[in-house]
Write the structure tokens for this entry.
Amino acid sequence: MKQKITIKTIAKELGVSTSTVSKALKDSHEISVETKQKIQAYANLYNYKPNHLALQLRNQKTKVIGVILPKIVHHFFSTVIMGIEEGANAKGYNIMVCFSNESYKKEVETLKVLSNGSVDGIIVSIASETLGNKDFNHFKELVSEEIPLVLFDRVVDDILCDKVVVDDVGAGYKATKHLLDNNRKKIALITTPKHVNVGTLRRQGYEKALIEAYIKTDEDLIVEIDEEANIKEQIDKAFKQDIDGVFAVNEIYAAKTMRVAKENGLNVPEDLSVIGFTDGLISEYSSPSITTIAQHGMTMGRQAVELLIERIEKESENFKPKKIVISSDLKLRESTKPSS
């Protein structure tokens, strides 16, 4: 008796992608005649039979969209959910929201559950641990199986799917340039570890603004936060230097920075100007209120779900991934002012 094989088995044996196998078995014009004949011959030899139950689940529309977020503590992600839900409901879809809690394993497991036919497509912001270990095979498998996928905010270029991002470099530049224009010269950066690409991109904007002002980047003024450790103690390291400005890559870091400043006997904004990222309730109701970069999470959510529904409803063999870049705005509040 010949072994029971799957599309993945054929792909592995012939050294091609599962997407190529799937298209060859459907006699797609995208696959060369030689490759098609080789794949079809192998499938016939081993009496390949498609999993009709899986196909039925895949092809049967649920009108549900899966969303996987790293966590919910940031105001930004809650606004993205609102944008996704608004856009989905307008097109007759509901959403199912899950959280990876920054865990690679949880992200893989959740993706597996959602992709078994529970939803028509998936929107994801990648977990920090996944970005750290650089293992994106679970996303690549999803793409090869032609399950609609949109990544937002935290994305990687080698996953061939639609993406929606903020202009993080431009945002980091705007924030730092504002501090420089306020005559702040020694500006600390409170950011994420390097593997979290949004933080890295915002750092690039920070460094670009410093270069334009002929200020050399001081590594002692850059604090990469490990969220498993005490955040306040890490931020306090920046205050060992004689700083007069801080750019924090999210509003939680900005609020904690102001608390550490107070503990160090500094007044905001007289002694220290602080800019955060994401225009949430923390930024609005802190005392003083925090000048911030507004990310437009609602817009990002609406754009992400629009791309996904387009993929779900207009299947095309000539799919070309799109990347939408959303600009950000500087919202001035009480935590920044020109130095005297």
